[in-house]
Design goal:
The structure holds two protein chains of two kinds. By secondary structure, chain A is α+β, with helices and mostly antiparallel strands. Chain A has helices spanning 51-62, 125-136, 161-165; strands spanning 27-34, 41-47, 68-75, 80-83, 100-107, 115-122, 144-149, 154-155. The radius of gyration of chain A is 20 Å and the shape is globular. Chain B starts with 5 loop residues before the first helix and ends with a helix. In chain B, helix 2 (27-46) packs antiparallel against helix 4, helix 6 runs antiparallel to helix 7 (144-172) and helix 6 (118-138) packs antiparallel against helix 10 (220-238). In chain B, strands 1-2 form a two-stranded antiparallel sheet. Chain B has 13 helices and two strands; from the N terminus they run H-H-H-H-H-H-H-H-H-H-E-E-H-H-H. By secondary structure, chain B is mainly α. Classes of the chains: A alpha+beta, B mainly alpha. Chains A and B meet through strand 2 and helix 1 of A and helix 2, helix 4, helix 5, helix 6 and helix 7 of B.
Chain lengths: 188, 309
């Protein structure tokens, strides 16, 4: 909940020198595909020491009532971002290196979360951004593009899907309709 | 260099568009958001204590299960909000440290004790009711991640308020003793609930800027009025009396008039002298320290995963 808590003496001014880590636990970005959903949608982040725990934390945090059918996590550090109001990323280096597969996520409009658009091969993250914009972003949309090496995305094992995603169905008392509230008292 | 500048930021706000994490934003906008979202997150987390107090003593297995689910939700809400704060360039760990050091606040409402089972009903009905009033407004806040966290939270709060009001209705329709419990609880929580909306608009120096930035969309006094208007009929329906002799319907304004909050109490609790301020932080610190073995075990498990490819 939130309130207007007046400024008080002794209150800290928080700097924002992007400190990373949470007791040594990295931050993981979370993507959820909901039941009936076509794509994975960005669902904020969790902290965890490893991918397996990140998946469990993500499930417990973001899927308490939402029917997830697939869950992805990736270390926050694996994301390369490009924003439409920023200059193009540095031209791909002359590495001539081998291509790897990248997953592409696009924020189509301010206020919306990034959604998975597809994947493509590229040698560098800059290259992946450039190609992602050509392939997945039409002229007037796509305010933000993320690329993540496919190998850095961890998915819940489909064999465990039932155990992983079942809890959202339990406990009908977690839903507002479980409670009988008379109409006379207004919307609640 | 980032081309998003003050001009683009202003245009984004003016167009009612959302500001997103990698956009340029004024330092004070960022600072205001970090402070507000952190306080919001801390409130969710500290708010688990007064309710957790009754888990072992809930009057039935059903009520116990409901309360556990609700307290779990509060933890989840805290995590949504820390995650939103982190998009502004702070770490969750830093914010939790500041809470433990008493250098960041949480809502004063959680510095009041839960003395009877009826308080669990009242918290859901009034405290979550007040929070919903605020949070529905915040789903339209100008910062994207905060607005999205609010959407998630609001989806879950309806259950919280309804289960609370149902407890109150059940007690109010019960024995004389149960009815007295419900009334006593309302007597104790009514004014602190109104205090949740903060000082009067004229005493809230940061409100104007927050509203210009569209972080807040409705002022403290207007939100408080909304809450009173919605809540009075609910109390009447339950046959309970709101402890305010000045409360009456004002036909002309189309709102309830109500009495003045005891602002001395408000400032006193905020300064750390409420009934439970010290307990809440001590408990929080102890829980963090006593949870060290869980963090160590998780880290050891992660290290083992790394070692066995």
């Amino acid at each position: 909940m939130s309130y207007d808590v007046p400024h008080m003496e002794g209150e800290a001014e928080v700097g924002f020198a992007a400190a990373d880590g949470d007791d040594g636990w990295p931050r993981w970005e979370v993507f959820v595909r909901q039941g009936g959903g076509l794509t994975h949608v960005y669902s904020e982040s969790v902290h965890a020491p490893d991918a397996e725990t990140a998946l469990l934390n993500a499930r417990d945090t973001y899927l308490r009532r939402i029917e997830g059918v697939s869950l992805w996590v990736t270390p926050a550090a694996a994301v390369t971002a490009w924003e439409s109001d920023q200059p193009d990323p540095a031209a791909p280096g002359e590495t001539g290196g081998e291509s790897i597969l990248w997953e592409v996520f696009v924020r189509h409009r301010r206020g919306l979360a990034h959604v998975h658009a597809g994947s493509l091969p590229a040698a560098t993250s800059g290259d992946a951004i450039t190609r992602a914009r050509q392939v997945y972003v039409t002229r007037d949309e796509g305010v933000s593009v993320w690329v993540i090496p496919s190998s850095r995305i961890y998915a819940a094992d489909p064999a465990d899907a039932e155990a992983m995603f079942a809890p959202f169905r339990d406990k009908e008392y977690r839903y507002p309709t479980y409670y009988d509230i008379p109409d006379e008292v207004g919307y609640m | 260099m980032n081309r998003m500048t003050q001009h683009l930021f202003d245009a984004t706000i003016a167009a009612d568009e959302k500001v997103e994490p990698r956009d340029w934003m004024p330092d004070d906008y960022r600072r205001t958001l970090i402070r507000q979202i952190a306080q919001h997150a801390h409130s969710e987390v500290i708010g688990m204590q007064p309710e957790g107090n009754w888990i072992t003593r809930a009057p039935s297995l059903k009520r116990k299960a409901i309360l556990i689910a609700k307290v779990q939700d509060e933890a989840g809400h805290g995590l949504y909000l820390y995650s939103a704060a982190e998009t502004l360039g702070v770490s969750r760990h830093e914010l939790v440290d500041l809470l433990h050091a008493g250098k960041q606040k949480y809502s004063s409402i959680f510095n009041y004790p839960t003395l009877s089972w009826a308080d669990i009903g009242t918290i859901g009905w009034l405290v979550d009711g007040a929070a919903i009033t605020n949070q529905v407004m915040l789903t339209r806040t100008s910062y994207g991640p905060y607005a999205r966290a609010m959407h998630r939270i609001c989806r879950e709060e309806s259950f919280h308020q309804r289960q609370g009001y149902e407890i109150i209705l059940t007690l109010a329709r019960g024995s004389a003793e149960q009815r007295a419990l419900a009334q006593d609880s309302l007597d104790r929580w009514w004014w602190p609930s109104l205090m949740m909306f903060g000082p009067h608009d004229e005493d809230s120096p940061h409100t104007r800027q927050s509203m210009e930035w569209k972080i807040k969309r409705i002022s403290n006094d207007d939100l408080r009025r909304q809450f009173v208007d919605a809540t009075v009929p609910q109390a009447e329906y339950a046959g309970l009396t709101i402890p305010d002799p000045d409360l009456r319907w004002n036909e002309e304004r189309g709102h309830y008039d109500f009495g003045e909050i005891d602002w001395d109490e408000f400032w006193n609790v905020l300064r750390g002298n409420g009934p439970c301020n010290r307990d809440r932080i001590e408990h929080k610190r102890r829980a963090w320290d006593e949870g060290a073995w869980v963090r160590e075990a998780a880290a050891a498990y992660a290290a083992k995963q790394d070692a066995t490819p």
